[in-house]
């Protein structure tokens, strides 16, 4: 498998095994968002708040998420967001997953225009690259 951090971010990509260890070698900051317990949009926003280490003042809406991910003062220039249990989340919550993906990909494009890197990495429990 090609190391995702050796190339510019391209959509939502499979997370490497031990993403934090791999990212450290490329000076990429990593945060993980656990989607396994998400039941609705409120739960998703809470998971994002926790995973991104945001304050309670986080607006808990799509615009606020976009702003947090694209604000140069809030995120390092080389940043990876690991979405834990992403495939299962998308299956359980098709509409919510599509909305999340749209915001994440918009933020990724905006980051690229600012000469910043925002990797979006999908990690599954018991990750086995042969299942991708």
TrEMBL record:
Q: What family does the Swiss-Prot or TrEMBL record give for this protein? A: Belongs to the barstar family.
The protein here is known as: Nuclease inhibitor
| Lineage of the organism | Bacteria, Thermotogati, Deinococcota, Deinococci, Deinococcales
Known InterPro entries for this protein? Barstar, Barstar-like_sf
Against Pfam families, the record matches this protein to: Barstar (PF01337)
Q: Which residues are in the Barstar (barnase inhibitor) domain?
A: 29-121
Q: Which domain of life is it from?
A: Bacteria
């Amino acid at each position: 498998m090609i190391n995702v951090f050796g190339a510019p971010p391209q959509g939502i990509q499979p997370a490497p095994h031990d993403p934090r260890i791999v990212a450290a070698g490329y000076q990429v900051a990593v945060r993980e968002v656990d989607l396994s317990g998400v039941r609705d949009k409120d739960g998703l926003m809470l998971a994002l708040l926790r995973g991104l280490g945001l304050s309670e003042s986080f607006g808990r809406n799509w615009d606020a998420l976009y702003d947090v991910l694209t604000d140069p003062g809030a995120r390092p220039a080389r940043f990876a967001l690991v979405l834990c249990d992403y495939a299962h989340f998308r299956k359980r919550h098709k509409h919510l997953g599509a909305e999340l993906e749209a915001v994440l990909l918009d933020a990724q494009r905006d980051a690229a225009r600012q000469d910043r890197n925002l990797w979006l990495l999908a990690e599954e429990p018991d990750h086995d690259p042969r299942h991708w």
